[in-house]
Amino acid sequence: MKKIIASFLLWAPLVLPAQTPIPLNDLSAFDLKSNNWHIVGDVTAPLNEKNTLTSRPGTGVLVCRHESEEYGDKFDLFTKESYGDMDLSLDFMLGVGSNSGIYLQGRYEVQLFDSWGVKNPKYYDCGGIYQRRDLSKPDGQNQYEGYAPRFNAYKAPGLWNTLEISYQAPRFDAAGQKISNAKILFVKLNGLLIHENVELSGPTGGPVEENEVPLAPLRVQGDHGSVALRNIVINNFNKKPGTVSDLAYKVYYGSHMHDADLSKIKIDEQGKTGELTWEVTKEPNNYVFIINGKYHAEEDGEYTFVTQLGGHSYLKIDGKEVLPNIWMRSGDRAVKVHLTRGEHTFEIFNNKRDNWIKPALGFWSAGPGFRLTPHHSAGSVIASKPQDPIIVNAATPTHLRSFMDWQKKPEDKNFRVVHAISIGSPESIHYTYDLDKGAIIQAWKGDFLDATPMWDDRGDGSSRPLGSLTLFNHDLVLNRIGSATWSDTTGTGYRPLGYDLDENDLPTFNYRIAGQKVSDKIRITDGKYLEREISITNGQDLAGRIANGDLIEQVDVNLYAVDGKKYFIRLEKGRDAVILNRKELLVKPEGNILKYAIIF
């Protein structure tokens, strides 16, 4: 039997089954040899104190405080459960100058390190894959391999970072001999891909043991500094994947309608096939094919099926249409289905009558204890390779006007900023400014912009940030003192006046609001953060709402954390701010100047 869990959805980062959050109500999920690990409710890392994490009582956060100069894995944290193939996601926070690491199977380290402001990261910087070590050679000559992250996506100390790792354990034959190396399939730091398909020829430096094994606990380094972890989720891929068999096909040539009665049309090709591929047809267009087969589910549970087909297509499982017969250019579709253990039937239908669409057939599944697995031949999706992206780099200060689609939360309705300008820098720190609001709506670290949506084919006028994105607000920053609303310009007399470029091609934005002329200068400071200086003709009539979020709290003198420590606002010394309802941060200009830093 089967039960349809969801109808079709456009292919997005797939949420796979068997996710297992590690509860952080106590330390019962871990093996400990020291007392430097604790469960707390929240942590804060002062920006002016080295290797310091302060905490509040409660649960949900795992914190390590290590201040001695004694080292060794007796200070490390080990899970009681052992893992092979796994996907791991977690949030982490480091103190200033702190150092930790995630050891997959206790042997292969992805580095956690305070790399704030590092322009050219090395293997020992945050997100790096640590070097291997040859103990037979003298110091200075005994380290090799090691992989630096593609970009430094690390946030400032005291802010929460998100780390995602997809890992494949080494493989062994029946005699216990290693037949393939461990592999890190990908690492993402704050949403930015920093490693992909990195093969690990052996344990990195400081393994719990030098041998390699199919299963071993996860280990977190605790002997080099203070670190906090939360939202630890593991997908444990310890089961055999589903398989397909008994493949048979029928092909109908000609420009047939997608809903034509095929029982009344001559079959042009039919037979058995040993692999799942669109090449059961002899023509690249004007065809209909149907491929039937069996799918073997190893376990009862929820399975995800993904197809990639151009033109009209559907997918049936056990005779029921789970992906409907609709037209798509060449995108992926996914559906979740509950299957019982054993054999099930599937049917893939494809009707392609648009010659400009390339033929393709992709078919994947994921299920209890196994990650997304392809069932098609390798060449069957190559033909549908998407358009090469049109990338805009920022080797020098770069400005690009475009539409910018913006969503502060996944559940929010998409908002299109129609007069956006994005400013790129060689420091790999970039931001987008809304000329209709005088607002910095977002900033990111990494590459600059993907302009494919704007310039490919007819285009839709929009571009996309290429990096670890931090979202702010798309509301006015300045308004009259006592104003009840900041979201739009009604009644404010807001009027954009363009921008001026300095000798380095960096803009200062100009506008009028409430009868006052405003100049808004945003600059990158120390390669680390944005510093903003807003000059007003008569600042006594206006106030600035410089942050708006679900939660704003003061964490240090002149330092405010926004949205659960996603970013900081830092005021100049001696400046006062007002937090309204724990959601709005208001500041009055000092004379005619409003100046603050955005740290992310």
Name the shape in a single word: globular
User: Strand count, sense and closure of the main sheet?
Assistant: 8 strands, antiparallel
Please state the average pLDDT score.
Answer: 93
- Helix content estimate: under 10%
Structural class: mainly beta
Q: State which percent range the strand residues make up.
A: over 45%
Rg from Cα: 28 Å
Low-confidence stretches: 1-17
Number of helices: 1
Tally of strands = 47
The tally of domains stands at: 3
Distance between the termini: 50 Å
Q: How would you concisely characterize the structure shown here?
A:
The chain is built from 1 helix and 47 strands. With 600 residues, it is an all-beta fold. Strand 14 and strand 15 form a beta hairpin.
Word description of this protein:
The chain has 600 residues and is an all-beta fold. It has 3 domains: 2-11 and 240-384, Jelly Rolls (Sandwich), CATH 2.60.120.380; 32-237, Jelly Rolls (Sandwich), CATH 2.60.120; 391-599, no CATH class. The protein contains 1 helix and 47 strands. Strands 3, 5, 6, 8, 13, 16, 17 and 19 form an 8-stranded antiparallel sheet that branches. β37 and β38 form a beta hairpin. It is globular, with a radius of gyration of 28 Å. The two termini are 50 Å apart. The model is unreliable at 1-17 (pLDDT under 50).
